[in-house]
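User: Structure please.
Assistant: Input sequence and predicted structure:
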Amino acid sequence: MPFDEAAPFDVAAVRARYPALADGYAYLDGAAGTQVPESVIAAIADTYRRGIGNVGGAFPASQRAGGIVAECRRAVADLLGGHSDGIVLGPNMTTLTYGWRTPSLPAGAPATRSC
């Protein structure tokens, strides 16, 4: 669906998709992810109902998890105009950053620095 600059933006309709906004507040806590649309909540709940496991296992729950990860990588690649094999998914950006940074530090150097 193309974006129509002339169409009015229905803020109330967008807010209604986010149950966490029902109390009238927007929690601007960065990457903590406290506000997601109802469709995301439903998709996560459905995934847990069907069961998932660690990616790479030989059992059905693990295969479902692998399929979810693969589809997510394809969707992100499509959004960014890239290739799914270039998409890295992880627990959160902070953990990924430390994971990438720590191996590049000199031996004995702390992983964090105080300012």
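The CA atoms of residues 42 and 48 lie 10 Å apart.
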